[in-house]
Amino acid sequence: SIILPTYNRASFLNRSVGSVLLQTFTDFELIIIDDASSDTTKEVVEAFKDDRIRYFKNETNIERSASRNKGIGLSAGKYICFLDSDDAYRPNHLSSFYDFIVQNNEPKGLIYTGIQRNYNTGETETVLEYPESNEPVVEWILQKQLPAPSSVCIHQEILSRYTFNPQFSLNEDIELWVRIAASYPLYHISAFTLDFYIHGGNTKFVLHDQSTELIKVFKAICRNPICKNLISKKFKRSRLQALRSQRISSVVNSNESKNIVLLILVFILRYPFAYQNKHRLYVLLKNIPILKSV
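The chain above was modelled as a monomer; its predicted structure follows.
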């Protein structure tokens, strides 16, 4: 089963849905969850005359985590894949998973392939990373922010136990992956089977402040009984420091002077020996109201 959630992205659907229909492995169902789109999504989907496509439209917008969970509940396949509406499978995507699954006696775990990032500039970048044998898998996923949602394949039994957390609007995929990786193995397939497109409509470009949500998700992961004992204190501190530094950068770039002073002050008190603290102190002094006019 392939689950494709979408919201007002009719212009991308010919590419994403078309890439599924071009798969060399043909025994699949494509479940499209339209998250209350107001564009021509329904018309674009209905133009595809293929019985393997199942289309459902939400009455109200429930966001992608809940939409993916709805698709999981509707799926009939033993293994479940995901496809974001602006990505595209290469023709060997499903066959690569099928061959791996057959050769490894239907493993239960988080299986993923390599991807190619395609930028608006025409530049491309291939990505296939995996943890070393002695590397903590949960920490690796959190550090690398991999695998991409459209590159994974997961046994339905796992997704009957673990689903996406609807509380999160960003990094909800990573939050689910670490819960799965805490109990199941991580498998990588050495093939590039997904085209991931970087454009102005990507979530990371649409959201003004990503770091606040990322910190929220990371703290929730660290509190989760399933994961917390798999994350070292050193990694937790380092990751939070990096995310808080990112938060300061986003606030500085948006000129939110009231927040800048407090954020930098708290950061320096927490991490007095952090790299670039001299520059942060300069920015802090520059944004103290009584000194701004000096």
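The beta strands are 2-6, 30-34, 53-57, 79-82, 88-89, 110-118, 124-127, 152-155, 186-197.
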